[in-house]
Amino acid sequence: MKRLSEVKAGVSAVIKEFENDEIFIKLMEMGCVPGEKIKVEMIAPLGDPISVTVAGYNLSLRLNEASSIFVEELSML
Fold this sequence. Notes:
By secondary structure, the chain is of the alpha+beta class. It has two helices and six strands, in the order ββαβββαβ. The chain has helices at about 20-30, 65, and strands at about 1-5, 10-20, 35-45, 50-55, 55-60, 70-75. The protein has a six-stranded antiparallel beta sheet with strand order 1-6-2-3-4-5. A hairpin with a 6-residue loop joins strand 3 (about 35-45) and strand 4. The chain is globular.
């Protein structure tokens, strides 16, 4: 497992768990729930924020938010 903030642009992953309970509710309301597929679409030139696709829509996350989401990358077959 790795943090979402470590995933490169263009890579898909599955959300596994959250590190921080206080941000957990906010992320769940945005569609970031365990088991949901998430794809890193773009990373800003200075690295913050990142743009992801989750639950059928685009979402921008700050690095501190993305670093609290643990994911498992999907292998390219």
